[in-house]
Specification:
4 helices; 123 residues; mainly alpha
Amino acid sequence: MNPYIVVTIVVGDLLLAAGLLAFFLTGASHFTALIPAAFGLLIQTPPVLGLLLHNYQRPLMTASLIIAVLGLIAAISRPIMKLAAGEPLAWNAATISQSVMALGCAVAIVAAAMFVLNSSGKP
């Protein structure tokens, strides 16, 4: 099993867990806390399918790469807008969740890109 695929799946699992944890720890009142969970599910689904469909691993990992890039953009957009407006960043549950999502998406980007850019698809 390719380690880049495994890393991408594990990152998806961690984002899924982080989103669910943030949602329930904040009183299950803000559905936006589930955004990391949604991206985690979307990031891990293509590599899981790639394990079943070996001939489609490269396009599926490319899809995971694109989703991870969109997730990184989504995670860093709000803090950047706050900083640009001159507002301070408070370390609350939302900021921590966005930071975890940004870090997870960055790791998924590296793993998926290493798989896609490797000509043989093997480490």
